[in-house]
Amino acid sequence: MRTPIIAGNWKMNNTMEEGLKLVADIKSQDLNKNVEAVLCVPFTDIKSVKEAIKGTNIKVGAQNMHWEESGAYTGEISPIMLKELEVDYVILGHSERRQYFNETDETVNKKMKSALAHNIKPIICVGETLEERESSKEKEVVKNQIIKGFQDIDEKHVEDIVIAYEPIWAIGTGKTASADDANDMIAFIREIIGQLYGDLKDVIRIQYGGSVKPENVAELMNKSDIDGALVGGASLKADDFVKLINY
Ligand code: 13P
């Protein structure tokens, strides 16, 4: 039985003060304890959010990291730095990072290996563009991202990895993939994991991301292969995020 995981990706939003207010509003409400709730926050918010969620089951994630432990990489943050802050998760290969910061399947793979070596659980993002979907290439694209992203990842780590299927055309656009289309792709991703890791395909958790909101979360979560959601916009409003956790 896979534990559902609802993760908020704050992206480049929330100063420390704003973040603390949001966390306080989330914490003040009853949260479904059977759902793992994660807040993936800007680096500058990690310490204060970690402090603020003490005593709750909420986990904290970062939104990126470098694969090296230290060195001449101006502006980067290392796995050791995240571990010192007791970060639980790190988003890797989000489409915004692939699109604006030249993240590739190769760098995602290096980061994934490094995160796992430092006991930080990766949430690895995959997904196709609208153009790729319209030319029926979406499965080929996603398969390639998974195979390259998982290159040389030992099977002992598979249960600690979360995959987020985020079709790029559904991110921040208000257009959600239909629950059937999302489930179909996620079942396909599970099949690829089966080809790579056998029965561990039934253990790995796979989320859907892209305009998830209180109105569509239940339908998505009720599908056979969807284990959670990676949420941008709706994670910035306490009431909406709580509704997602309590779907
Ligand atoms: P939205 O929920 O705002 O569409 O963002 C999805 C996303 O990119 C989460 O990582």
Question: Can you describe what's shown?
Answer:
The chain is 38% helix and 15% strand. It is of the alpha/beta class and 247 residues long. It has a single domain, classed as Aldolase class I (TIM Barrel, Alpha-Beta Barrel). Helix 3 links the parallel strand 3 and strand 4. The protein is globular, with a radius of gyration of 17 Å. Residues 9, 94, 166, 171-172, 209-212, 230-234 line the site of 1,3-dihydroxyacetonephosphate (13P).
| The top level CATH class name | Alpha Beta
Strand content: 5-15%
The CATH architecture assignment turns out to be: Alpha-Beta Barrel
What order do the helices and strands follow? EHEHEHEHHEHHEHEHEH
Strand order of the largest sheet: 1-2-3-4-5-6-7-8
Ranges where pLDDT stays below 50 over 5 or more residues in a row are none
Helix content: 25-40%
Bound molecules: 1,3-dihydroxyacetonephosphate
Task: Tell me the structural class.
Answer: alpha/beta
CATH level-4 homologous superfamily: Aldolase class I
Largest sheet: 8 strands, parallel, barrel
